[in-house]
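Hello support,

Our group uses your service weekly, and this is the first time we've seen a run hang past the timeout. The protein is MarR family transcriptional regulator. I'm not sure whether the cause is the sequence or the server load. Input pasted verbatim:
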Amino acid sequence: MFIAFRSAEARIVADVAAAGFDDLTLAQGRVAARIGPNGTRLTDLAEQAQITKQSAGFLVDQLEKAGYVERVPDPTDARARLVRLAPRGAAVQARARRTERAIERDWERHLGKEQMEALRSALEALREITDPYA
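Update from on-call engineer: The timeout came from a worker crash unrelated to the input. Re-ran successfully.
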């Protein structure tokens, strides 16, 4: 699983860089990928990325300076702020999602439709016991 994951990750990073998002680092991308559709608190990003709050804050600062994210008030808690994708972040996310779909098509061509469906099903089932954020 690790080798297939790293291959997919490297392909996504290379593709978004080729599309003009060449200032986005792998570490920044790993944090940004965890931002929910309505924004995510910095402490939650740090926990999900399994990094310190200070590291997450540093990476979010870089993402904000590059125009990928913005910090906005949390509507559920006036003291808190959310990290939310800015338009540039949404654009790179859309590009990454297209690359993910291309990778899945390539894997299906290699494995065949039946094995790909079995792989997807098995990974979704494993998520139930391995992903604390699902």
